[in-house]
Please model this.
Amino acid sequence: MKYNFDEVIDRRGTHAVKLDGMQEIWGRTDLIPLWVADMDFATPPFILEAVRKRCEHSILGYTEKPDGYYRAVINWLKTRYDMNVSKEHLNYVPGIVAGLGMAINCFTSPGDKIMIMPPVYHPFAWLVKRNNRQLVECPLILEDGHYRMNLDQLRREKKGVRVLILCNPHNPGGVVWTREELEAVAEICAEDNILVFSDEIHADLTLPPARHLPFAMVSEKARNNSVTFMAPSKTFNMPGVAASHTIIYNKDIRSRFNAWLEAGELNAGHVFAWPAVEAAYTYGAEWLEQCLEYIQGNIDYVDNYLKKRIPRIHAMRPMASYLVWLDCRELNLSQQELNHLFAEEAGLALNDGEMFGKEGKGFMRMNVACPRVTLERAMKQLEEAVARM
Ligand SMILES: Cc1ncc(COP(=O)(O)O)c(C=O)c1O
Model:
């Protein structure tokens, strides 16, 4: 079946954060929304159908996790990543940020050190600080327009660190880490019993020819010393369904997390989670392939447009996902001026690069998971705004 990613869907009236959330930040809701990381494409019809079908039954009672749900997750992981997972390795968490928060509370105590690698998805720092843990930063190295990990700094700063939150693939920048980098992280962290939380929410959106490598798959040390977070939420544009999962191979780590979740009944899930996730992972491969092709086309479009018409802004081409990290440093603007340029002059809502850490100064993050016409309009508005500078 051929899916239509060109369709422009009016999301008004759905309380979409991407639309309504603009009011709080920009004081207006008429900007082209290229920020919050969900897609403006329709959630695949087989997922909507599964939820609809469940509603045909007149009782939305307490619901167990069906075998079909487990089978679908397990098959997906085996087929795409050659991961051998069984039911006992899996746990439901409502979202990745919520799950990371739970894991922080389970495995660390107030005051403990937790490391992140900025610029990185901003809720990582919030989670650490808002749970009264100590934030340790190991910034990425930007070299020839690409990020790599600073493994020397990781070795130097790791003393007393209890947890490393890894973003794999990395947001922003869309970096797919090399096997060597992931192996080194596993080695360095295992030496000091630093538990690795690997956030792999963007894994399925890895753009060919790049391939996602789950952290837990790089070595025995990684497998034994990690909590992997995955979800169909980004992949199939269903984050509102709140259905993600952890994969934990190590028995002791798993027992500890299970006991912690069960103490608050936090892994119970909800009635729509199971049919939605099962449908996504059972029928989603073809849709995903077409979606990634469309996203790749949008990335090409933005990259070519910038090169031809706005050459002082450079796109860091993501190897995974639909978030394009725009290097705007050549415009020589302060971050405040840059935000003003994008919002007030160009009429666009993008994420402010500095949100991801001070290393993001001079950058903006653009979500290109939208119909091409939206992007055409956005790029034209940006070109005109830069020309007026
Ligand atoms: C790296 C990363 N982790 C987690 C999330 C959010 O996940 P959730 O909505 O499941 O909390 C995002 C969303 O952009 C993300 O980029």
Remarks:
- The mean pLDDT is 98.
